Amino acid sequence: MTSQLLAQLAIFVISAFLGFELISRVPNLLHTPLMSATNAIHGIVLVGAIIALASASDGFTTTVGMIAVIFGAMNVVGGFWVTNRMLGMFGPPRKRVKKREE
Amino acid sequence: MQVAPFIAYLAAAALFIYGIRRLRTPETARSGNTLAAVGMAIALIATIFVADIDNVLSVGQISVGVLIGSVLGAVAAQRVQMTAMPQMVAAFNGVGGGAAALVAVSEFYRVEALGQGHETLVATIAVLLSVIIGTVSFAGSTIAFIKLQELALTGSVTFPLQQVVNAAIFVGILLLSANILAGGLVLSPLVSLYLILGASLLLGVLFVIPIGGADMPIVISLLNAFTGLAAAASGFVLSNYALIISGTLVGASGTILTRLMSGALGRPLGKIIFAGIAASGGGGSEQQEDREVNDKSAGEVGEYLADDAEKVIIVPGYGLAVAQAQQAMRDLVETLESEGKEVLFGIHPVAGRMPGHMNVLLTEVGIPYEKLYDLEDINPEFDDADAAIIVGANDVVNPSANDPEVESPISGMPVLTVENAEHVIFIKRSLSPGFAGVDNPLFYDTEKTMMLFSDAKQGLQDLNEAVKNS
């Protein structure tokens, strides 16, 4: 139990630093899609919702689990879908012109 | 945990990380999002083997729930206008936070009321964090959605002793949490948890209602980080690595993004959250007396642009999106370029209602993103520009933000230095100050500035005609 908790804490800390690093280099241009994509990724909570609903054994836990699953699925599907729509507008691949370097 | 689902979760996490990495450039961004979605699918499939699904009933329930949620999410995502993107993100964020809180409530109830599983200190702390953070995010996002959709509560809503009330609720939540951790000394743990749930809902509402329009992007970003942390906390409840890794990634990245944004506004996060923009409410009224402005018609401005301007920089603000004038903007750009003029866009980090929102709105109508310049890149360009055209923006070009003599809500905010251009053209409906309620001295510089009083869409169309005809 303890070693499992320690492993989880280690993963937590490393993930946090990774998150800091990943975002720091995204340009302003893409901040809205970025926010929207990370928004979709925290839809991972649907995994937890499915586990909760699967182990539900009475009316209360079933209701709560069901709402959680619906919420989580909305978060995942809506989040990725809308990000995809947004990024579709950034057009076909083109070379980014770096005017400032000329 | 079995080995196969564990590997699948790791693969999903790797895809999330690689996907976010690909969001760094416009060319790779879309595939990055797709990769992250694939990662999500892998994690969800693996969960079928992790969850203890032992009968047809729960398979049916899960399928129905996923189906309902997916349809709702997809329909909303497909229908939403790009201008309404901030409230859409707020909505998806809210349901995510709600889901995290409910997962924790369900687990706690199973342990306390049904005697299933076993209670550990760590799991209980994780339940509390997940419920509190998730619920605050849910309630806060709901209020943000209502405000941005302009259903109610627009502007800053304040009442006396607001901070005291918030602090009292927070202390209440801490006391109830302590009661649960002590095994229910005063109240039963379940009742305490329900009270915490209610108090957190209230706290989420009170946290967001005083925050006005201009600061909303920052709040949404912060709530996004909250939901990530709530998901990570529910990962600790369930001992699920997929939740811990992904939730923490989002929590950390959301925090950084929030800091970048509040930096772009020149306002420390604490000031936004604890002071709100409330103080600025009445700022604009004092200098409204009849000062002279250089009022020009579209014809006159068009003539100037056609005859004397070679390099034009356009600064769009949220007013452009409100007037749905993006298309008219593109038409004007095409006309100017067909006359051989150089046209660039200066995009302030907080133009629109989310950072990067204006870029999305302009690329939507086919303005190539190569023309969209960030604040640091565009400011030197104003020095040799003949005209800066400001459409539906004010605060982001207000030189008084960096005037040490003037104390205002936007003091210290980096702005676009449009005053360095030869001429400044405002397309604006009236002289009223923007979101922050701060008067702009450029309005009254009759040598340099031309004011074209018009709705953004109408003004751009008239200007386009005028340039064509002269």
UniProtKB/TrEMBL annotation, chain A:
An annotated GO cellular component: plasma membrane
Entry EC no(s): 7.1.1.1
Role this protein plays: The transhydrogenation between NADH and NADP is coupled to respiration and ATP hydrolysis and functions as a proton pump across the membrane.
Reactions catalysed: NAD(+) + NADPH + H(+)(in) = NADH + NADP(+) + H(+)(out)
Keyword check for Chloroplast: no
Annotated source species: uncultured Rubrobacteraceae bacterium
Lineage: Bacteria, Bacillati, Actinomycetota, Rubrobacteria, Rubrobacterales
Pfam families xrefs: PNTB_4TM
Topological type in the membrane: Multi-pass membrane protein
Places the protein is found: Cell inner membrane
Transmembrane segments: 6-24, 36-54, 60-82
Name this polypeptide is given: proton-translocating NAD(P)(+) transhydrogenase
Keyword vocabulary terms for this entry: Cell inner membrane, Cell membrane, Membrane, NAD, NADP, Oxidoreductase, Translocase, Transmembrane, Transmembrane helix
First-level EC class: translocase
